[in-house]
Design goal:
The complex is a heterodimer of chains A (about 425) and B (about 150). Chain A is of the alpha/beta class. Chain A contains 19 helices and 13 strands. In chain A, about 40% of the residues lie in helices and about 15% in strands. In chain A, the strands form 4 sheets. Chain A has a 5-stranded parallel beta sheet with strand order 11-10-9-12-13. A 4-stranded parallel beta sheet of chain A has the order 7-6-5-8. In chain A, about 55% of the residues are buried. In chain B, helix 1 (about 25-35) runs parallel beside helix 2 (about 75-80) and helix 2 (about 75-80) runs parallel beside helix 3. Chain B is globular. The N and C termini of chain B lie close together (about 5 Å). Classes of the chains: A alpha/beta (about 425), B alpha/beta (about 150).
Chain lengths: ~425, ~150
């Protein structure tokens, strides 16, 4: 069925705001019709969020498209944040790697100039965790968003109760340009119902990154209703719980294609609607200790030498919250002291949004972390690892997303701590 | 020869050799290296997809359940099309997902190199088609698999 457009939407499609906006609207209409949308609805969130933050030299088609938009006056109606920058000179890299970075991301400056023209929120709005209080792009419950970045979308939907489809890069910008998105999928009440019941039956708090990975691989793009996790997280959506869900959600979205999950007794819609969120034919997936161990054991190690000593460690994909930075600092300094070490055994980078890192830098913990030899950066670890000379290095991480997209090897938080403090697992 | 009827998301014709992924196709992970390093054959770089890891994707009939992973997926497909590294067509067993749809539609509207795209071909399609078989696509969403 064709989408019924309002007079304003029809006018945009007919070219009253220029040919480029008409083409943008045509793309969104086709996109919506593919999913049976019958109308376009206003974007009510104050800000957009874009996934494409990197000026990769070879992605000329994207820059050409951005130029077309700018020249055609098709700018974003709302300011937007964007994923992290791919470069930071404070992150360890050698001369050759730096040469490669310069060549790879040769369009970074010109692409950022394009983003500024299109509607970038501000110069520090480069993070995958735009919803952190410090950043200034936290949607309200019920807001309709035109966002991309899988980890941000799943967080906004699940933890904040906003409404956003798993939009692709470019499509999310198009929605912010015309101010409307097609009404389907996760924007609708029906699309937010769960077709999986995930029963968490572990004997200890499950590792967020492995639990999310297991759920993502099983349910793919479906909506899971997760039972039993409130045993470990409680029923208050405090910062601890939000951080856990941030990391779990990122793994569901990268190891599968989850755009929304409900946690019984914890996330907003689950608290209000409970089992009314379940589809009648919902399937059941039970996760116990053995299942988590099976999933983790299945991760391939693609290092040339599987026993190589790690040369770099990334923690913070998605970016860490201030609470997580503090928590890691405390655990790390304690572990180092216990092992009679002053500095980490492996060069280590903790990543956080620029404004979160800035706030953390004012605290005594920041000095303790510096003394331990850890770099705090706002880089995108994934973009760092895309440098083939970096990708060849044995890099470890506690991020399942980074593991999925790069050669980085996954370890649990406890394993990472052990490796950093003792130099061995 | 077996025939399957799906929905033409981006109508078009194609005849190509099948490349079959039985698991979710991670678009970013699969195309990442090909786009970054100018691999004209677009060898799949997704280490988690044993069905197609290392196999060329350019010009193939990519047969898959759905795509998964990063929301750069649609943009990556659009870039692949603009850089002429794209599959000959995209054939989905399940209803198309939002990222793949975005890529197919962006390529259809904004690129000179569209990818005919058909979804809803059913699980039996993926059970029947094997890598290396010849696949034909008609504009009405009919897909023929030749053994």
């Amino acid at each position: 069925m064709a989408i019924a457009l309002t007079a304003e939407q029809q006018a945009i499609l007919a070219g009253e705001k220029g040919e480029v906006q008409a083409k943008v609207m045509r793309t969104l209409v086709m996109y919506g019709e593919t999913f049976g949308a019958q109308k376009m609805v206003p974007v009510t969130g104050a800000n957009g969020h874009l996934v494409t933050s990197f000026g990769l030299g070879v992605m000329k088609p994207v820059y050409a498209l951005m130029d077309t938009l700018i020249e055609g006056g098709a700018l974003s109606r709302q300011p937007f944040s964007v994923d992290p920058r791919p470069l930071d000179q404070n992150v360890p890299s050698n001369l050759l790697q730096n040469v490669f970075f310069k060549v790879m991301y040769s369009k970074q400056a010109s692409y950022e100039a394009q983003l500024n023209k299109l509607g970038l929120l501000d110069e520090s709005a480069f993070t995958c965790t735009c919803y952190m209080d410090e950043v200034g792009n936290k949607p309200r419950e019920g807001d309709v968003l035109s966002w991309a970045e899988s980890s941000a979308v799943v967080y906004a939907n699940s933890v904040l109760g906003a409404r956003c489809n798993r939009n692709s890069g470019i499509i999310e910008l198009f929605g912010s340009i015309v101010g409307y998105v097609p009404y389907f999928g996760l924007l609708t009440d029906e699309g937010r119902k769960a077709s999986w019941i995930v029963e968490v039956a572990t004997t200890q708090k499950p590792e967020a990154q492995v639990l999310g990975s297991a759920i993502g691989m099983k349910v793919m793009e479906d909506v899971p209703y997760i039972r039993g996790l409130d045993t470990w997280l409680g029923t208050e959506l405090n910062q601890d719980a939000r951080d856990y869900l941030k990391d779990m959600g990122a793994a569901t979205a990268s190891n599968g294609a989850v755009g929304l999950y409900h946690i019984e007794n914890l996330t907003p819609e689950a608290v209000r609607q409970g089992e009314a969120l379940l589809r009648p034919d919902a399937k059941v997936y039970r996760i116990d200790d053995a299942e988590l161990a099976r999933v983790k054991a299945g991760y391939p190690v693609i290092w040339k030498d599987a026993n190589a000593a790690p040369k770099l460690c990334f923690v913070g994909c998605p970016h860490l919250s201030e609470r997580q930075l503090n928590d890691w600092t405390q655990k790390l300094t304690e572990a180092l002291a216990q092992n009679g070490r002053k500095k980490v055994a492996i060069p280590t980078v903790f990543t956080a949004a620029p404004k979160v890192a800035e706030k953390f830098a004012q605290t005594p913990q920041a000095e303790a972390l510096r003394a331990a030899g850890v770099v705090v950066s706002s880089i995108c670890p994934l973009m760092y690892m895309n440098n083939p000379l970096c990708g060849k290095m044995p890099v470890i991480t506690s991020s399942n997303k980074l593991r999925t997209y790069t050669s980085a090897r996954y370890h649990t938080d406890a394993e990472i701590l052990q490796l950093l403090a003792k130099g061995e697992n | 020869m077996k025939t399957f009827k799906g929905r033409a998301v981006v109508p078009g014709t194609a005849k190509a050799e099948a490349l079959v992924s039985h698991g979710g196709f991670n678009t970013l992970a699969s195309f990442q290296k090909a786009l970054m390093f100018g691999d004209k054959k677009a060898a799949c770089s997704d280490q988690n997809n044993p069905d197609i890891y290392g196999k060329p994707m350019c010009g193939k009939a990519l047969c898959l359940p759905q795509t998964i992973g990063s929301t750069t997926g649609g943009m990556v497909l659009f870039c692949a099309a603009e850089m002429e590294r794209q599959p000959a067509c995209l054939l989905f067993a399940k209803p198309i997902d939002s990222l793949a749809a975005a890529g197919a539609i962006l390529a259809g509207v904004w690129s000179a190199h569209p990818m005919p795209t058909v979804d809803n071909l059913g699980d039996e399609f993926l059970a029947a088609v094997q890598t290396g078989m010849t696949v034909r696509v008609a504009p009405d969403g009919t897909v023929t698999v030749e053994e």
